[in-house]
Amino acid sequence: MQKHIKEEDLYQIKMTALDRLSPDGISVFFWGAFIYSAVIVGFSFQALTSPYLANAKWQGFTGMLFILLVIQALGTFFYSSEKIAYKYQKLQVLFLLFVSFKLSFEMYLPFFLLHQDRMAPSYIQTVGLVLMAGGLLTLILAVIHGFLSVRKGYFKRNEKGLYRFSTLKNYVGLPFLFGLLLFGGLLAKAAWDMPDVFSIGEVFFALFLSFVIQYAIALTWPEFLLLAYSKFKFKSFSPRFPNRKKGKLG
């Protein structure tokens, strides 16, 4: 299907590439994502000081997240230069896919650490795993929806683009609704089983935040993927470095 995609079929992605997701705009996002990831890693290392987390498994996961943070830091600093961002923008958008995908999952580590440290019921962890798997499924469905939207012409000029509610709800809305119902059921069960359920409130907060972030990125990741596809296929999707002195592209 991708062989039949024409440049005019991706008009709205092109406008995004020249505006909201321009190379310098993506570089700003990298810094926000890096600060967020650094906080996650810092919290995780601090949590490992708990005697309840003296487990090689959690140390391994945290160490892996730290290595990914180092890679993220190198890319973030590299693309801090506006000239470099424009010169290597094709690689930049691939790095955007990596950073955003990592961002969608990493909040789950603090959730699992808090769950273990607070000795919360095991079924809470099970629900966390189900929500994480559901978020991955939502991402896959959102990508399918994105490419089907291209084929149906939703990214052409004067069309509504990726977020057409009538079609999006079938691919993303139902999994998201299921996740909300599952989370609500979890709260109800925990409140029934534990009169002092608020004593592990931070566990539920971390899980809810993980769920919201993952599903939110699942909605935006297809746009990043289509942008990467477009930049590699069509030259016009890669804007030139702006000559600000002359007020035009140079």
UniProtKB/TrEMBL annotation:
Transmembrane domains' residue ranges: 28-48, 60-79, 91-111, 123-150, 171-192, 204-229
Keywords of the record: Membrane, Transmembrane, Transmembrane helix
Protein origin, superkingdom: Bacteria
Protein name: Uncharacterized protein
Organism: Sutcliffiella tianshenii
Organism ancestry: Bacteria, Bacillati, Bacillota, Bacilli, Bacillales
